[in-house]
């Protein structure tokens, strides 16, 4: 039985694509399939399942051999927009929630991308980068916070349907409340030093703690980068269990949280989803990047978590093959999972069917109120 | 081949059942299948494998459809004692070690429960709650400790066959020795503030460190809550590896330790069991709550650990379906494990047979001297 | 299809064997198949898959029953050198990189062992034990460091092809830079107390941070003990993610790092290998000791990591059966992995073939420049 046939995919965490000018650049292709920076050897990326499976995706669509030069040549002869659209349509993408905090160079603008792909696009606003832009407009940390809150209040009117925090990339997920007097000291220090990147833990934590009530009043879900990411993140501090104090404080007040990526802490994320109201998560980035583990990772994510708490997401960017691959891997994982629970755990077929729809798109619709 | 056919189950960690008055209450049914509190949405519990598999267990026994209203109705028409007894007997339960620290409301008293189920019951005594009850009877922390020690010395005569520590719920598993002078200060402080719940880390650690020698002299095994539990526990501090200093101190003196639950740290628990004498563990609570992962979780637990160190347990409470489900999942896991090791690892069938008996009941008999 | 047929194995982390005098000692046999010390019950080791699978290896080679007494008797009647050689040859071992920091009692000297097994042997030098030997020859910590650096510079000429750090066994993997003045204080303190074992965190960290530039200039790869080991290591502090500051500092300078063992942190190690240049790892020790989990552990290690970053290793010592078993388990894991990725992930057979060769021996040749 094919559980996912015809089920639409709503991707609640992804990024924009490159445009046609870079379509045949196979270095861009490779580095879109890793979290490693450009200092990481290309030759190593070329020894991964993800890279070869993405090549196979491209080769099938292009009708060429599974070979980087063959794919590059075929790509240069193909309309990249039509090619991208074909992959998105085949994969079943019906809606994209794009994190605008990272955008590949030479990419389509979002309205253009929407037309190219034929998929409606909604946006997610990054808290820390938004706040960072406002840093030097104020002398008092409280004024800065007020300005950030104003931005958040205007987010919906600008097409944003959720917020994202990258505090895991800056000071880690053990988020705690900070006194205004300490935040003010850090604020003054930062301005004196002329720093433009917001890295002081006191400011990051103060910001998150102060602004979160507005996420609640605006009914904006808050995404957290957790787990796996580029080496700028300290994975040791990216364990979502560290969010405990934050969750204990704001979940009872009505905050909705989505834990992104989570791998290798996806069992921990599943635990959080199983005991806290309004906590959601995904295994994006691992699918597509941990391609060969797709079935196991999806199965582990669903050990404790209700099906109403896991969301489909790719965290893909730059290349359409990455989106196609992520979709394939999620489907592969969910197919195997449904076979398993209906065969070994007496789950009724209609229940399994409902669950794949929840994970594929309905949870997303509900959480982001789409 | 069916490795578990006719193998009795001794459950070394579980709780009591509700009585007939709540038999058809499907909210009680649902919340017995999660670690989430009542503030967690019922609708999310109803999107888990555990919930539906428990419904299937009930429906099969009751001869009705797998559907909550159908099950509720059938339950109200059935003798709940006979129903419970039937599930326990079919599952193969032959002995229960009940942690009396948590008892569902409206439940049978233990002597009555023993008769209802036709299964002998033994008891486990919680250290911290026992100590808490004695807090205000003494002015000196040393007198308090002496009184707790007396309780422990009398435990066997009152039907207790082991102790349980919930320090993971209070201050975490990184247990350390505390000076009497510091413990006395904490003791005085606590009494001054009129606290009735024992939460001060100094007191919790002092208590555990001081009383453990009596567990050894009384030959009482010490259970630790570790890993997965309700959100009152900080799962980040529930990693059994944090017990290192405690184990290094008391294991050489003869202490027997059983690490409860352990998920998602069951590989870590298996490691501890593989290098320390007298360290045992289980994957209760995950089985039944991480139902769809049963085979993988049992297999992971047995990667490093000898079969002589893993114990069957359910951590079930409230509902008989939970007990039945836990038993089914353990059996499913152990069946798959035995197939795997006899087919791929040249393990002799008679050895695999001995191992399932060890895990199912013989380890329990030996550890608790039954 | 058999992916590993005829593929040679180069073991980049293992130890020496016992000699014929202990060949039939079944206690030595058992304790060679665990990380537990002699205080751990023999009877528990005898309830592990590893123990029984090693017995089956011996019994097959000896033509006797799978039974410890039968094996012991047959071993005493067999030429132990020829027996060992046969197992190494059948397993496909073609080169051994032996860590000389641990050597079983009554073992062959390495030149002799090379002849007995018919396998070329190269050596790995332990940093901390080398440095420890030099501790009392100097009054100034800088002179001590200079002497250690000299030893490292002479390492290649003495047959060493890499270095190993056991800092995880002493103060943990959260390695940090230490000021010379603080190191000098610790150095004086240690000498005053007459300690011969290097355990002071300041000295251990200073040593590693000061000497690493010489590993780079000498192009000597640095192995780290991480993860699973005997209970002298604190597994909680053995998470390779803790090496972050060290990796961020020295990897850009050209250091090559191999993370040994890694279990249960092999997914974390795979992550590090996927984002940092020149970071390699293995799942030795888990294979052979977590025998029944071989397929899953290899598959998990290869979720994120390129095939160019995982190395075959056994961490075996003392007994030839342990080496044979490790080889069998790695092959079993890699066979299953290749079946999976070629069937479910469109990986070309020739790519999968290249990958098993990389993991089995080519990565080792390249990293250690053999």
Topology at a glance:
The structure is a homotrimer of 370-residue chains.
Chain A: E1 9-14, H1 26-31, H2 42-45, H3 49-62, H4 68-76, H5 80-91, E2 93-99, H6 110-117, E3 121-126, H7 127-133, H8 141-155, E4 160-165, H9 167-170, H10 180-193, H11 201-217, E5 222-226, H12 244-250, E6 257-261, H13 266-275, E7 279-281, E8 284-285, H14 286-289, H15 294-301, H16 320-344, H17 349-367
Walk me through this protein's architecture.
The structure is a homotrimer of 370-residue chains. With 370 residues, chain A is α/β, with parallel strands linked by helices. Chain A has a single domain (9-23, 78-367), classed as Alpha-Beta Barrel (TIM Barrel), CATH 3.20.20. Chain A is 49% helix and 11% strand. Chain A has helices at 26-31, 42-45, 49-62, 68-76, 80-91, 110-117, 127-133, 141-155, 167-170, 180-193, 201-217, 244-250, 266-275, 286-289, 294-301, 320-344, 349-367, and strands at residues 9-14, 93-99, 121-126, 160-165, 222-226, 257-261, 279-281, 284-285. In chain A, helix 3 (49-62) packs across helix 4 (68-76). Chain A is globular. The mean pLDDT of chain A is 97. Chains in contact: A-B, A-C, B-C. Chains A and B meet through helix 13, helix 15, helix 16 and helix 17 of A and helix 2 and helix 3 of B.
Give a brief outline of the structure.
With 370 residues, chain A is α/β, with parallel strands linked by helices.
């Amino acid at each position: 039985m094919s559980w996912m046939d015809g089920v639409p995919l709503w991707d609640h965490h992804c990024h924009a694509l490159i445009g046609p000018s870079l379509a045949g650049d196979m270095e861009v292709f490779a580095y879109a399939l890793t979290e490693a920076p450009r200092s990481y050897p290309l030759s190593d990326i070329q020894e991964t399942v993800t890279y070869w499976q993405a090549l196979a995706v491209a080769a099938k669509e292009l009708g060429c051999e599974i070979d980087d030069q063959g794919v590059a040549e075929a790509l240069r002869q193909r309309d990249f927009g039509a090619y991208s659209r074909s992959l998105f349509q085949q994969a079943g993408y019906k809606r994209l929630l794009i994190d605008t905090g990272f955008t590949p160079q030479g990419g389509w603008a979002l309205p253009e991308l929407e037309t190219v792909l034929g998929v409606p696009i909604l946006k997610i606003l990054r808290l820390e980068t938004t706040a960072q832009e406002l840093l030097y407009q104020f002398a008092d940390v409280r004024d800065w916070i007020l300005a950030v809150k104003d931005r958040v209040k205007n987010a919906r009117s600008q097409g944003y349907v959720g917020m994202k925090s990258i505090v895991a990339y800056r000071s880690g997920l053990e988020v705690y409340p900070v006194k205004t007097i300490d935040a003010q000291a850090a604020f003054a220090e930062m301005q004196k030093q002329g720093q433009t990147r917001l890295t002081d833990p006191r400011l990051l934590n103060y910001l998150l703690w102060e602004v979160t009530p507005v996420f609640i009043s605006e009914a904006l879900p808050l995404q957290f980068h957790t787990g796996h990411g580029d080496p700028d993140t300290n994975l040791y501090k990216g364990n979502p269990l560290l969010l405990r104090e934050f969750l204990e404080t704001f979940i009872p007040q009505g905050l909705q949280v989505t834990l992104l990526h989570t791998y290798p802490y996806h069992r921990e994320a599943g635990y959080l989803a199983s005991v806290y109201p309004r906590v959601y998560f995904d295994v994006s980035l691992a699918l597509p990047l941990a391609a060969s583990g797709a079935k196991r990772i999806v199965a582990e994510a669903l050990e404790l978590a209700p099906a109403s708490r896991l969301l489909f997401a790719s965290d893909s960017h730059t290349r359409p093959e990455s989106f196609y691959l992520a979709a394939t891997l999620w489907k592969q994982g969910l197919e195997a999972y449904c076979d398993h629970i209906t065969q070994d755990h007496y789950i009724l077929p209609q229940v399994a069917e409902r669950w794949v729809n929840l994970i594929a798109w309905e949870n997303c619709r509900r959480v982001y109120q789409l």
